[in-house]
Specification:
single chain; 317 residues; alpha+beta; Jelly Rolls; Phage tail protein beta-alpha-beta fold; 3 domains; 13-stranded mixed beta sheet; 3-stranded mixed beta sheet; 30% helix; elongated; disordered N terminus
Length: 317
């Protein structure tokens, strides 16, 4: 069941308490029954525990199979089952580890250029084009005599494309296709779709037979199942991340926190609803997300609570 209320700091802490208690003594039947009763008593409890498990996975402490198919939470495996797992032959265990890690390994195997979380990298391509990869991004490059074809596997990239009319510069990002005639533009691919912003020159964006030409200052946001959204943007603000700054005007604290979340390992949660909805305008340091979080919330009576290096809560005093 999807939780519809607001999850409090106390509830998040309680969920982490249960996670640690179950790991410490997974064979305690009475404790397990109490946990099951707590979990069933409120959909928010299930959502809070789901978040705790998700964050613990980021820290490498919980396996993906701790969640049933369909997203229903189950308790952590007991010691007896752990002993069985440790009895698996080494070769089979290695195969299982490979399958669990395959999504990230697939990115590594496909990518010619890659950055980690919080990283940035500048690459000069063979044709004289320049590419800057933002945090947690991956790019594949294939040049031949007829075309310059690249694939944005994940993340965000800024391109300065060298003009070569004989060989079009084509960027694939999922089902989207960007054709360039000599320009500078930013592309971001994530779970919310694809965003393209043109700093100068022009590009053509194609998807499912639809085509749209973009010029300097155009920003296009494409989400599957929705009409494309075209807006105008100040070209000086395109790809501000190259200067390790996040400039916002009228964004919510929740939106800024979600953006800063891309530049650090773990998760950031805004636990106060009023704080989450507060509008802010400012420039934040992407090279130091923790300092940026303090600058984001403290002027509004908020505080940054670091539970672990992977878990940060934004609350009010």
């Amino acid at each position: 069941m999807k939780a519809s209320g607001f999850i409090s700091e106390a509830l998040i802490e309680r969920a982490f308490d249960w996670l640690l208690v179950l790991q410490a003594d997974p064979d305690d039947a009475e404790q397990q029954a109490q946990f099951d009763a707590w979990l069933r008593s409120d959909p928010l409890h299930e959502e809070a525990y789901r978040r705790a498990v998700s964050t613990w996975k980021v820290a490498g402490q919980v396996r993906a199979e701790e969640l049933r198919d369909g997203g229903t939470i189950r308790s952590l495996p007991g010691r007896r089952r752990s002993r069985v797992r440790w009895g698996i032959p080494t070769a089979l265990a290695a195969c299982l580890m490979l399958l669990m890690a395959w999504p990230q390994l697939s990115v590594l195997l496909r990518a010619d250029y890659r950055t980690g979380v919080g990283g940035m990298r500048t690459v000069s391509l063979a044709d004289g084009s320049s590419v800057i990869l933002n945090t947690d991004s991956a790019l594949r490059v294939h040049y031949d005599d007829r075309a310059r074809t690249l694939e944005l596997i994940q993340g965000e990239v800024y391109f300065e494309v060298a003009r070569d009319p004989a060989r079009p510069f084509i960027l694939q990002a999922g089902k989207h296709r960007i054709t360039v005639l000599g320009t500078a533009f930013n592309v971001r691919r994530d779970d919310d779709g694809l965003s393209v912003a043109v700093a100068h020159g022009r590009v053509r964006a194609d998807r499912d037979g639809d085509s749209l030409e973009l010029h300097s200052g155009d920003r296009l946001h494409m989400v599957p199942g929705r009409p494309p959204k075209l807006t105008k943007v100040n070209t000086k603000r395109i790809a501000g991340w190259r200067r390790q700054r996040l400039a916002v005007a009228g964004a919510t604290v929740a939106e800024v926190a979600a953006e800063l979340d891309r530049y650090r390992l773990g998760r950031i949660w805004v636990l106060d609803e009023k704080l989450a909805e507060r509008r802010v305008t400012g420039s934040y340091n992407l090279a130091n997300p923790e300092a940026a979080l303090h600058a984001l919330v403290e002027p509004h009576g908020g505080r940054v609570q670091t539970l672990t290096p992977y878990v940060v809560l934004l609350t009010v005093e």
